[in-house]
Amino acid sequence: MKKFIKIILSMAFVLTLLPKLNAQSEKPNIVIILTDDLGYGDVSFLNPESKVRTPHMDALAKEGVWASDAHAPSTVCSPSRYSLLTGRYAWRGSLRAGRLNPWKESAIEKDRVTLPKILKEKGYHTALIGKWHLGFEWPWMGGGKPSESIIGKGTSTASCEMFDWSKPIKGGPLGAGFDYYFGDDAPNMPPYAFIENDRLTCEPVNIDGRKLMKQQTMRGGYIHGIGPGEKGWQLNKVMPTITAKAIDFIDQESKKEKPFFLMYAPTSPHSPIVPLDKYKGKSLAGPYGDFIIQTDEAIGQVVKALKNSGVYENTLLIISSDNGPAPFMRERIQTHGHNPSGPLRGLKRDLLEGGHRVPFIASWPKGEIKGGKEIDALLSQTDLFATIAGIIDYKLEDSIAEDSLDILATLRSNQTVRQELVYHASNGKLGLRQENWAYLHPKGITSEPDWFKQIWNGDSIDGPALLFDLSTDLAQRNNLYKKFPERIQQMESRLKKIQNGKSTR
Asked: Mind telling me which Pfam families this protein's record contains (predicted)?
């Protein structure tokens, strides 16, 4: 009888654990790490000639899968982030050109179905930690915002007195469907302070951002003028603070029954270039390279937190970048011999491959995304929406994530799902990728300075149209517009059809 009672009690104990075990096994946790301005040539698993070693990303590529033909939806940050979170091309909405200037309102429409919204509907706890840069409804004093000349098309002169900080900061990540937000919005724009959910975490004072840059950074870049911020704000504390928050979120949420979605958005290696002292001199590419090493170690800390919490095996983990490397860091190539675009031509903001072809790693051991395989099929960050929707069994209506494709088969076995992709330059010009062909609007190359052209031995790619066969000319040295006029005509016609259509899915 005693033995029977012990068996019953043991069974009862096991049953008390089943809800938690089932919750962990039914749905994967999802973590997206979206770095800022990390180039294709910056990571050593893609570029053996990189002057920067990225051991944590290299190790994850060996555990999961890595893509050699993955693309950010745009060549600058705001539209890329919009597309990832909505599954639609940003040029279909308000982000047709450029990125958001300081103090802009939310770019994601209030009624737009977003990735965090569908995950919440399926029982996920959702958080964004790090860079947002998709706008807020700022609490302007009296309810009306100042003129563009004050807010700044480029440089802001807005001051604390223009805001009612007793009121919440509406819109932003919470308005887009996240349960929790912690970050600094954008590292080189006011407010120079952390935001937690809908409030600043400090009593703001007026700060001259240019003085911050001059006093605290080692190299160039830009920062957008005067604005409210935290007294004594240290630019180099942003990365370690948001990384610690991300790790804490994983530690806490992994103990709960609900699955979680974390978008961790490092502010590096975007300017201001502010590596911590312990990383200085660790690369062969100067301060920029040192900042990449700090970024790589932050990614390693997040992966370690997933493993230590026991949820790594059933976590879909994605690591990528919002666009190609910034063009301002001239000494990377001329002084250190480090090409942040690697074998690609082009930089952030333009339609050449270096502007949008980015590092991409995926891991989900329990979901058969593993094995260290190269994925050479075409894919886009826009596809993460439909892929995750398929994993959580969320049916997408035609009006939701209309440019997103389910690429789970691509990530698992390198099956080709995406046949074409629209490229989106910072100035609003578009291009089209079909198989190995890349058609680019000739005015979509905006950021290739003369010193960068020198590494291509003076090869000119001027012309009324740009056409490249990437299977034989990944470096885009040879413009084939004269040789294949019919193909250009066909691709231009197809691009117009996509622009005029409501969906590409």
From this structure: Sulfatase (PF00884)
Are 316 and 388 spatial neighbours (Cβ–Cβ below 8 Å)? Answer: yes
Closest CA to 331 of 152, 481, 451: 451
- In this structure, what token pair is assigned to residue 355? 């502007």
Q: Which helix (H) or strand (E) holds 130?
A: strand 125-131
For residue 271, how far is the Cα from the chain centroid?
Answer: 15
- Give the other-Cβ count within 10 Å of 491's Cβ: 22
| Structural domains of the chain, with CATH | 27-500 (3.40.720.10)
3-state secondary structure of 26: helix
Residue 304: pLDDT band with limits 50, 70, 90: very high
**Residues 307, 75 contacting (CB under 8 angstroms):** no
End-to-end CA distance of the chain: 64
Q: State the number of CA atoms in the 13 A half-sphere of 328 facing the CB.
A: 12
DSSP calls for 166-185: TS--EEHHHHTT-SEEEEEE
453 pLDDT band, cuts 50/70/90, is: low
**CA-CA distance, 423 to 72, in Å (whole number)?**
9
* 142 SS3 class: helix
Joined tokens for residue 201: 């975490």
Element (H, E) at 261: strand 260-265
Asked whether the whole model's pTM tops 0.90, one would answer yes
On whether the CB atoms of residues 430 and 355 are closer than 8 A, the answer is no
Q: DSSP character for 393? A: T
Of 330, 293, 348, the closest CA to residue 219 belongs to 330
Percent of the chain with pLDDT over 90: 80
For residues 192 and 207, the answer to whether their CB atoms sit within 8 Å is yes
Q: Is residue 333 over pLDDT 80?
A: no
Are 474 and 353 a contacting pair, CB within 8 Å?
yes
Asked whether 326 and 99 are in contact (CB, 8 A), the reply is no
Helix (H, G, I), strand (E, B) or coil at 210: helix
Query: What separation in angstroms does the CA of 363 have from each of 61, 134, 408?
Result: 8, 27, 11
Phi-psi region of 126 (alpha: psi -120 to 50; beta: other; left: phi over 0): beta
Q: What angle do CA 341, 345, 348 make, to 5 degrees?
A: 60
- Decide: helix, strand or coil at residue 354: helix
Q: Is the pLDDT of residue 354 over 70?
A: yes
Q: Write out the H or E segment, with its range, that includes residue 120.
A: helix 115-121
> How far is the C-alpha of 489 from the C-alpha of 145, rounded, in Å?
46
- DSSP string across 296-330: HHHHHHHHHHHHHTT-GGGEEEEEEESSS--TT-T
